[in-house]
Design brief:
CATH class of the largest domain in chain A: Mainly Beta
Strand order of the largest sheet of chain A: 2-6-4-5
Number of helices of chain A: 9
Shape of chain A: globular
Structural class of chain A: alpha+beta
Oligomer: homodimer
Helix content of chain A: 40-55%
Largest sheet of chain A: 4 strands, antiparallel
Number of domains of chain A: 2
Order of helices and strands of chain A: HHEEEEEHEEHHHEHHEEH
Chain lengths: ~230, ~230
Amino acid sequence: MINVHLKKLRRRVEISAEEEQAIRGVVAETRSVRADQILIRSGEELSNALILFEGWLARSKDLPGGDRQVTGLHIAGDFADLHGFTLKRLDHDVVALSDCVVGVVPHDRLQDITERHPRLARVYWYSTNVDAAINRELALSLGQRSALSRMAHLFCELYLRLTVVGLARLDGYDFPLTQRELAECLGLTLVHANRTIQELRRRSLVELENRQLTILDRSGLEGIAEFDPSYLYL
Amino acid sequence: MINVHLKKLRRRVEISAEEEQAIRGVVAETRSVRADQILIRSGEELSNALILFEGWLARSKDLPGGDRQVTGLHIAGDFADLHGFTLKRLDHDVVALSDCVVGVVPHDRLQDITERHPRLARVYWYSTNVDAAINRELALSLGQRSALSRMAHLFCELYLRLTVVGLARLDGYDFPLTQRELAECLGLTLVHANRTIQELRRRSLVELENRQLTILDRSGLEGIAEFDPSYLYL
DNA sequence: CGAAGCATTGAAGTGCGTCAACAATCGTGG
DNA sequence: CCACGATTGTTGACGCACTTCAATGCTTCG
């Protein structure tokens, strides 16, 4: 299960055999959770981190009025809350967007391997910094791109990230989000998210049905998104 | 000069006398830069990091069409590009919003103190994670808050952050940004940013003239912003 | 003094939100 | 296996927050 995590790391940095062994030892247990379950609540004290082995998670921030923004999506291989290792509590919830399998990594084991393998400390620090870079790109999308461009951008980003861990098909991938959840990622209303998908369809860029995303014209999609993947540090 | 940086760190974590000495040794030189200068360009290879001693910096991301989003503001005491220590290149520019004084910190000195003082490695990791939390709050603002609420939120956040390093007055602070730059922080056009300031004025919440921000009604401002400072981890 | 940047204002347009209804699909229990 | 409500997706009409375009005065600074 943890192979997908190693795959992701190795796409960006070198991991020695010894370090790999250390990483293989950090998961204390694995848990299955159902879609829509809240794994971590904002503010709650943390002593574990979660590696996602299967399924999709979201970081979600709520406003008193009930409006909600998803500030990040996680796919297999991602640590969902590695920043919680240093922060000890989160400023957002972590929720399951699909049925998931997660590995529970006690903070003291992280403490342990980062002390024993200072290079791994750097690797995981790096990893939280890539998360942050993805977040900055989201801010750029939310602040400056149109709904159409924003959605196209998200689809492009996920295509790359899923490819890294071997979860994309050549022309698309499983996309388990409802349109409501997609809207929350993009800072749109449900209704407008729906119309935006239809516009992407109408332009023959993308198909989306039965939780399957098909990319009909990737360079067209990247064009609309003004997609430049360098922020992903691949 | 570095005292302001220590002040900021100590507001969130403990720093021993020994660690303090180590930190005092990281700055190789100090440089003055003029407003509007670009200190770091997106993509360029880095071997130094910058601590801001005086003035304001921004992280800025450009789109091909010329639109621009500021994804973060930095004030005295902040590392502007600590994430560059692990990433080695940035996904955004770093630009001076006012005349600034920065400390140049070679990456190998950072390497050095984080190896010698593993606790400092944790402190600086933590620090980049707080940056990321501020970014998530920005995504929430850009995705869900109205222009008025967004601007109020920014003013509230900066009031707290400036207070931490002793740079706020009781009722406000120096605010060197032009309205254009403010607009770029908030994902608004210049014109609408101007009208939004006027609305805050009209409601007697805030005054802004001659680069001075005066907060006339802080709890009113926080109300409009739906401001909850827990994401700042103070 | 003139030029350039900055703040302000007005008028008109539009992208996205809101409200409301309905269709399609899904999960569940009888 | 069907009946049912609940969730998800779709559509239409209308409204508004924000953008766009354009002009004008104000400040700053060489």
